[in-house]
């Protein structure tokens, strides 16, 4: 999604709205919710819902109560209530759809402790907010230097300023518990602001930093994925993927979220599929499953005495043999079933023109005459 200001400019270069995360139409961030009720009017006598949704720095959204019934619309920059001071964010959703979103996020609409919206942000509020956001990269770099000097086993990944510039929230990742009391003292002394440390997971860190995955596209977590479901190695086993940590792990170091995308299809296909540890009893010996293709419904078996030779069987054939084995009946051999699966190879290319050679337009190389002509011997002619 993109706003009208993000269309292509001259020479095919993206023009960009240059609003630094405060896009007027709110179409440049992954947290945008499509307001499908925007063109519908309320019934007569019904008051509009008094809560709105406000976004902060493209990774955090909260619900606020519009107690003063301010005329707010999507894209308005507002000053909201905070624990101390005020924060500045952008309205991303209004109306009845906010009620549905609060129900989805399990936030009670009757909660009296819900923070309030003070006012629409003035130009002074916006200037202070933009000034603070411009300082974030510099402060993040300096805070990392302080953490390294204190030899703390942690990684500071992002900084988020409060709208009034009185407080900064530092997001970090760490393997174990970190004693950052001295770090807070040093940073508060260096920056002159209140410090809040918030630990996040590695998936949330990749979500904030962004990047390009092994598929060649931007990370799902930084573009559209908002909820992180647990991913286990069982997802890779069901999809018959090699349990290679380097290929299954994403940039966050955890298993890729995309392993869950097709898992339901594999589980549905495996319902009537014979288990891969099944054994087929034949008169030539026991056969073990070596490989299976779930969607082609094909399995490959080999005898215990000859594991190098594989025989291709369909799913129905394997189920048929297993049913016979349950009745203590053995089939003659796997070759009888495998012969039925041999398809005659059909020519997919026919030479119509009669020119197959790829080098037909190359110049033929001239043969070099290796036999050199004998030069006449002047001595022999003079003697004669």
From TrEMBL:
<dbReference type="InterPro" id="IPR007557">
    <property type="entry name" value="PSP1_C"/>
</dbReference>
<feature type="region of interest" description="Disordered">
    <location>
        <begin position="356"/>
        <end position="384"/>
    </location>
</feature>
<feature type="compositionally biased region" description="Basic residues">
    <location>
        <begin position="363"/>
        <end position="377"/>
    </location>
</feature>
<protein>
    <recommendedName>
        <fullName>PSP1 C-terminal domain-containing protein</fullName>
    </recommendedName>
</protein>
<dbReference type="GO" id="GO:0005737">
    <property type="term" value="C:cytoplasm"/>
</dbReference>
<dbReference type="Pfam" id="PF04468">
    <property type="entry name" value="PSP1"/>
</dbReference>
<feature type="domain" description="PSP1 C-terminal">
    <location>
        <begin position="115"/>
        <end position="200"/>
    </location>
</feature>
<dbReference type="InterPro" id="IPR047767">
    <property type="entry name" value="PSP1-like"/>
</dbReference>
């Amino acid at each position: 999604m993109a706003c009208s200001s993000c269309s292509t400019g001259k020479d095919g270069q993206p023009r960009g709205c240059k609003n630094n995360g405060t896009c007027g139409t709110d179409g440049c961030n992954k947290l945008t919710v499509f307001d499908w009720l925007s063109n519908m009017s309320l019934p007569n006598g019904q008051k509009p819902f008094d809560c709105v949704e406000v976004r902060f720095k493209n990774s955090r959204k909260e619900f606020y109560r519009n107690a003063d019934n301010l005329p707010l619309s999507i894209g308005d920059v507002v000053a909201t209530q905070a624990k101390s001071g005020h924060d500045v964010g952008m309205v991303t959703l209004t109306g009845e759809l906010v009620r549905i979103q609060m129900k989805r996020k399990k936030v009670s609409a009757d909660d009296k402790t819900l923070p309030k919206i003070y006012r629409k942000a003035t130009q002074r509020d916006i200037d202070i907010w933009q000034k603070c956001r411009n300082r974030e990269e510099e402060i993040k770099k300096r805070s990392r230097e302080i953490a390294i000097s204190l030899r703390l086993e942690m990684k500071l990944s992002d900084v988020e300023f409060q709208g009034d510039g009185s407080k900064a929230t530092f997001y970090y990742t760490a393997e174990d518990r970190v004693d950052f009391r001295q770090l807070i003292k040093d940073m508060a002394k260096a920056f002159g602001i209140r410090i809040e440390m918030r630990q996040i997971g590695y998936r949330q860190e990749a979500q904030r930093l962004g990047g390009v995955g092994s598929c060649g596209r931007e990370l799902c977590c930084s573009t559209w994925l908002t909820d992180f479901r647990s991913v286990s190695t069982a997802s890779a086993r069901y999809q018959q993927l090699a349990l290679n940590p380097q290929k299954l792990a994403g940039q966050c170091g955890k298993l890729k979220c995309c392993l869950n995308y097709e898992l339901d299809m594999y589980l549905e296909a495996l319902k009537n599929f014979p288990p891969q540890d099944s054994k087929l009893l034949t008169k030539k010996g026991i056969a073990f499953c070596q490989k299976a293709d779930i969607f082609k419904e094909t399995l490959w078996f080999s005898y215990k005495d000859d594991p190098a030779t594989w025989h291709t069987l369909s799913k129905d054939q394997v189920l048929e043999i297993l049913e016979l084995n349950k009745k203590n009946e053995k089939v003659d051999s796997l070759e009888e079933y495998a012969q039925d699966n041999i398809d005659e190879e059909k020519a997919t290319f026919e030479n119509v023109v009669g020119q197959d050679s790829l080098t037909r337009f190359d110049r033929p190389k001239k043969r070099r005459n290796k036999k050199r002509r004998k030069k006449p011997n002047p001595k022999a002619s003079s003697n004669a």
